[in-house]
Amino acid sequence: MMILKSHTVGPLQVKAYIIGCSETKDAVIIDPAGSEDMLVKEIRDMGLNLRYIINTHGHPDHTVGNARVKALTGAKVLMHQEDDTLFRGKEAIALFKSWGFEPAPPADAYIKGGDELKIGRLSFKVLHTPGHSPGSVCLYGHGYIITGDTLFVGAAGRTDLIGGSFDTLVRSLKENIAVLPDETIVLPGHDYGDTPTSTIGREKRENPYLKECCAD
Description:
Layout: E1 2-9, E2 14-21, E3 26-30, H1 36-45, E4 49-54, H2 60-63, H3 66-73, E5 76-79, H4 81-86, H5 90-98, E6 109-110, E7 116-119, E8 122-128, E9 137-141, E10 144-148, E11 151-152, E12 155-156, H6 166-177, E13 185-188, E14 198-199, H7 200-206, H8 208-214
Parallel strand pairs: 3-4, 4-5, 5-6, 10-13
Antiparallel strand pairs: 1-2, 2-3, 7-8, 8-9, 9-10, 11-12, 13-14
Helix pairs in contact: 1-3, 6-8, 7-8
């Protein structure tokens, strides 16, 4: 059985997700972006053992909590290599420092499209969905997709930052997300829509980005 908890944290109101396996008590946290002590306390209070910190992408509002959570738990940081490399470059560091963010520590290991992430007896597939950033990923499994900033309820991620590409984002949405079952529950990286979550079916009907994809 899957344990799923979410919290809105950090200066840019990121959705952090805790996923745990009720049988083995293994857990991961996705995009710990603030309130790190509270998140770790909740994980411990549920009797879970945090194995990994997973970043849907490398923008600092989603990675700002990596160092603290890692220090508290020893969990390893997982990210796509393209974002880990790009956002530790001088241009990106200067931009993000101007926003008030310090660089996150490098990832401990890389994930890529097609990988299967095991969380105890749970399994999530990594979907590489570049566009918002070159190394953006989504996690799909057990009827859910955690989309980071690739897809929001009624919208999609911005593409005007370093490494962003609107055409690439549209292709990712068409090839990797619009093809999922309509009943798949969408768990976005920010609560920007009229509801905190959605479904692929609803987004294909109402989200202009997915409607554009499905119209072809």
